[in-house]
Amino acid sequence: MKAFLFSILLCFISLNSIYGQFSGGSGTEQDPYQISTIEQLQYIGQIENLSKHFILANNIDASMTKTWNDSLGFKPIGDVFDKFTGSLDGNEKQISNISINRPLSNNIAIFAFINGAVISNLILTNAAISGNDYVATVVANTENSSLNNVHITCSITSKGVSGGIIASNNSTPVSYCSATILNSTTNWREFGGLIGRNNSILSYSYTKGYINGSGLVGGSHSSGEGQTGGAINFCYSEATIQNGSGLVGHISIGTLRNSMFHGKFINGRGGLVGWLNTNASINQCLAVISDSSSVLGGL
């Protein structure tokens, strides 16, 4: 009898330790785990949680991440072998002051790799992200996922492919998103205000702030300078651009439609696009350059 009761107690403790990591829910799509602290957000990175579903329960101040892990900050969720495949609903709540300071590491963002995931309704303010290559605020590498209604204010430091929201985007539609870039110390050829390298659909999204790169999309999904292999529709940037292009660095294969740049240049190449391949097209777009110290090409 004692052994039976002891087994029941162990089972209860085990279940309590699992569910106690979150503020409620069961991790299903219908009943997502509720996240109310930055520690709980970090716990998504446990391998048993990478396929689960989550929702923010309240605003979160992530200032303490600046001192985590010997000042390396928040640890990116997932890796190339174990990707996040669940969902995160920001529930229109705000995560402020998150810090990731890993200048020698690649694949740096809140999520390092996602595949088949959904990220929506998320607001990040005053994020500070530093990495080497494939660096962004929300996702470093996407595959077959979706991002919708994601809004960020951030500072980015990187040497390679990087973007305000996504570094490398593959087959992941992005819509109704925005990025305000407070500061970008980046490789301008590979930095985009929203996305570094893009191979999908980007729509109804915009950028503001100071961008050392191109307004929307910077880098390439193959090699070399920035290009997009997808479609960009109904987007705009009103940023101050240094070195890059108003909207896209390089369109290799794809389209840019119904989009506008209305901002300033501190050096640059192209009010809309820096380089356009013969297999690409631009339709019904506009560049209004309010101030320029030097820009090569009005469009």
Detail the topology: elements first, then pairings.
Blueprint: H1 2-19, E1 33-35, H2 38-43, E2 53-56, E3 60-61, H3 68-71, E4 87-89, E5 94-96, E6 99-101, E7 111-115, E8 118-130, E9 139-143, E10 146-157, E11 162-163, E12 166-170, E13 174-175, E14 178-185, E15 191-192, E16 195-199, E17 201-203, E18 206-211, E19 217-219, E20 231-233, E21 236-237, E22 240-242, E23 248-251, E24 254-257, E25 260-266, E26 273-276, E27 280-283, E28 286-292
Parallel strand pairs: 1-2, 2-4, 3-5, 4-8, 5-8, 6-8, 7-9, 8-10, 9-12, 10-13, 10-14, 11-15, 12-16, 13-17, 14-18, 16-19, 17-20, 18-21, 18-22, 20-24, 21-25, 22-25, 23-26, 24-27, 25-28
Provide an overview of this structure:
With 299 residues, the protein is mainly beta. It has one domain: Pectate Lyase C-like, CATH 2.160.20. Helices cover 9% and strands 42% of the residues. The protein has three helices and 28 strands. It has helices at 2-19, 38-43, 68-71; strands at residues 33-35, 53-56, 60-61, 87-89, 94-96, 99-101, 111-115, 118-130, 139-143, 146-157, 162-163, 166-170, 174-175, 178-185, 191-192, 195-199, 201-203, 206-211, 217-219, 231-233, 236-237, 240-242, 248-251, 254-257, 260-266, 273-276, 280-283, 286-292. It has a 19-stranded parallel β-sheet that branches. The chain has a five-stranded parallel β-sheet with strand order 7-9-12-16-19, with no helix packed on it. A two-stranded parallel sheet has the order 11-15. The longest helix has 18 residues, at 2-19. It is globular and about 50 Å long. The protein starts with a helix and ends in a 7-residue tail after the last strand.
